[in-house]
Amino acid sequence: MTYGGTCATYVSELPYHRAELEHRRMPPVIGRDELIRRVGRAGTPDAMFSTLAAQLRRVVPYDAAVWRATDPETGMMTSPILAENIEERSCAVYWRYELFAERINLFRDLVQAPDPVAGLWESTDGHPDRSPLYTGFLAPRGVHDELRAVLRVDGRPHGYVSLFRLNGRNAFGTGERRFVQDLATPVARTLRSYAKQGPEPTTGGGPLGTGLLLFDADGSLISVNDDARHYLDEMPDGPTIPTALGIPVPLWVHGTAMRARAIAEERESGTARIRLRSRTGRWLVCHATCLRGADGSLGPAAVVVERAPVSEVTPLIVQAYELSRRELEVTRCVARGLSTGRIAEELHLSPHTVRDHIKAVFEKLGVSSRGELVGKLFTEYHDSLGAAG
User: Fold this and answer.
1) What does CATH list as the number for 18-196?
2) Which of 27, 150, 271, 347 is deepest in the core (most CB within 10 A)?
């Protein structure tokens, strides 16, 4: 696997004048609670990332950053992605190092770590050259330190953050790391909540077929079918990878192909699968696998894009409404049409307890009947599902 890409300037424009670089020594402009309140008022994930970036850089100054939403089941980056002062092509090269070379502060490890935030300089005791990402990618671009954060809630990752400081700046300090750590769960909860937003009304059903894209070993797009072109047109704005076919590929689609190859090379485990929203809020699923030749050698990575079935979307909706495990069990029984008595028998609860759970679920979802509940979770988010249903 190669790590293509040029050593073009990593940070295209510094957001600070030199006099402002010591801003972190001044009292924070706003505190944690106020920052979280402002983030919570953002109407979309994109607006939330923009708001968080604008506020955080006043407390924890940085020169460049990448903010990524992730699929909470696979931990893979999905939409939206906000790149600040970073060349879009560099984002893909960075992620290749993450999948194929890096050993320090891997995002997959931070997901499980007691502290989901780590600085490269601090983690290596001042020897960042232990990191392949640093020696091969960050240092040539003038980056002095990186602070990584996993935005997680209930053990699931909903976002990854990379903050960078250039040479001439101090490394990220312990206090700054802890400040970001205190934000991780509230911000993750806000990201999770956006799954409650229903799709916009549309006149057309959009593509219903299966989109297929093939990527070679270097991550270059070599083939694409017409359905995939339609799905790419539906994709939200974000960093893209230019291709020889003249089709810009969103970073999260390209990342799915790279993850599939990493799994095939036994550098990663799990599945290469993400869910994301189209421009109209319609749910899509993107999954990939690496093909093999007759001799067993690895071939192209095949990426499939299609409309997400109900079974893929409902877990995200349930998590967004923060249903407890027991409330989810009761909700599943309600969706099957079981009476209160039958639910009580099946879950070994009293009818009174079942009614209490149903009432709590009604309040969380803002509904007043079982029919509304089923419609809210299994119908409202799936307009014109067609074959994907």
Assistant:
1) 3.30.450.80
2) 150
318/154 Cα distance (integer angstroms): 13
Domain range 321-388, CATH architecture: Orthogonal Bundle (1.10)
Q: What's the half-sphere exposure (Cβ side, CA atoms, 13 Å) at 152?
A: 24
CA distance 176 to 84: 19
CA–CA separation, 379 and 293 (whole Å):
42
DSSP symbol at 86: B
pLDDT value, residue 23: 41
Query: Where in the chain are the domains?
Result: 18-196, 211-308, 321-388
**Rounded average pLDDT over 299-322:** 91
Whole-structure pTM value: 0.86
Sheet holding 64-70, edge to edge: 77-84, 64-70, 156-166, 143-153, 117-119
pLDDT recorded at residue 376:
78
Q: Which residues contact 314 (CB under 8 A, 6 or more apart)?
A: 377, 378
pLDDT of residue 206: 60
* CA dihedral of residues 275, 279, 281, 284 (deg, nearest 10): -30
Cβ–Cβ contacts within 10 Å for residue 230, how many? Answer: 15
* Residue 196, pLDDT score: 87
Token code pair at residue 137: 């990618």
Q: How far, in Å, CA of 281 to CA of 277, rounded?
A: 5
Domain 211-308, CATH 3.30.450.20 — does that match? yes
- pLDDT > 80? residue 305: yes
For 69, 309, 353, the CA distances from 52, given in Å and listed in that order, are 13, 32, 41
